[in-house]
Amino acid sequence: MTSVLQEIPHFTRLSERVVRILGLNPGHLTLQGTNTYLIGTGSSKILLDTGEGKPEYIHLLIDSLKKLGENVIISDILISHWHFDHVGGIDNILQYASENNLPSPIVHKKLDPEHDKSHHTFQQVENNQIFKTDGATIRSILTPGHSEDHVAFYLEEENAIFTGDTVLGQGTAKFENLGEYINSLQKLKQFSPDRLYPGHGPVVENGTEKLEEYITHRLKREEEIIEVLKKSETPLTPGQIVEIIYVKYPKHLWSAAEHGIILHLIKLENDGLVKNIDIESSKGKWTIINSKI
């Protein structure tokens, strides 16, 4: 629910070994656009995520490689998850390499047969897998929640994490499974990162604090839902819960908020704290199970 977005340049050298290149696809969900990152201090770079395939992006990426020195190439591509704004540029990058007689980058991703394009050849990413290039050691962290195949990457030399869409530079992230999402945030917090390189939005300094903020936000929302249900004399629909909790927010945001409330309710149901008395629909009426909690 971020309103004013911080301006982000198309090309930014963020550290000795990390360069951010915008995917040139700004939007409501992508914020300033998808962040893609070139990683490494030598001529062989690792690219993290590829934008959504905007023609202007491949030109920006090529120009960025030239800015970084002669004969700079992409040896490997790491993909955080299957969403189109992160994988859409793969084909253009591979085509450019082929047409210019460059080594074809190896594309690494946690496999997701339901969503992965059939013509893509991905090398499976396992948890705690190490990827290396000059000046950079990158460790994979499986972080489902935003999507089932989501992976974050820890940059050892900087005690920093490329969070993908698990944590954003501004606002809060969407998720498919709240229980998994909170577990993934807790997993990232264990690294005590100094810095976060998010999939969208500006770099986050004080990374551990941001992760704590995200976890606290979700647990606070959970407590609010429980309190609303405890005070109600009758079961409530997710929409009715939204009207109470989000009363101070603009109504055009309520529909998106309702989806989040439903995911919270499903988690609370799995935790044995609430139940859905209308098993035909998650938008049915929900009630508290134990009023003493």
Structure characterization notes:
There is one protein chain. The chain is an alpha/beta fold and 293 residues long. The protein has two domains: 11-206, Ribonuclease Z/Hydroxyacylglutathione hydrolase-like (Metallo-beta-lactamase, Chain A, 4-Layer Sandwich); 232-288, Arc Repressor Mutant, subunit A (Orthogonal Bundle). Helices cover 30% and strands 22% of the residues. It has seven helices and 15 strands. It has helices spanning 55-67, 84-87, 90-99, 178-189, 207-231, 238-245, 254-270; strands at residues 11-13, 18-22, 35-39, 44-48, 73-78, 106-109, 123-124, 130-133, 136-142, 151-155, 160-164, 195-198, 204-205, 274-276, 286-288. Strands 1-2-3-4-5-6-7 form a seven-stranded mixed beta sheet, with helices on one face. Strands 8-9-10-11-12-13 form a six-stranded mixed beta sheet. Strand 10 and strand 11 (160-164) form a beta hairpin. Helix 4 (178-189) runs antiparallel to helix 5 (207-231). The longest helix has 25 residues, at 207-231. It is elongated. The model has no long low-confidence stretch (mean pLDDT 95).
Helices and strands in order:
Layout: E1 11-13, E2 18-22, E3 35-39, E4 44-48, H1 55-67, E5 73-78, H2 84-87, H3 90-99, E6 106-109, E7 123-124, E8 130-133, E9 136-142, E10 151-155, E11 160-164, H4 178-189, E12 195-198, E13 204-205, H5 207-231, H6 238-245, H7 254-270, E14 274-276, E15 286-288
Parallel strand pairs: 4-5, 5-6, 6-7, 11-12
Antiparallel strand pairs: 1-2, 2-3, 3-4, 8-9, 9-10, 10-11, 12-13, 14-15
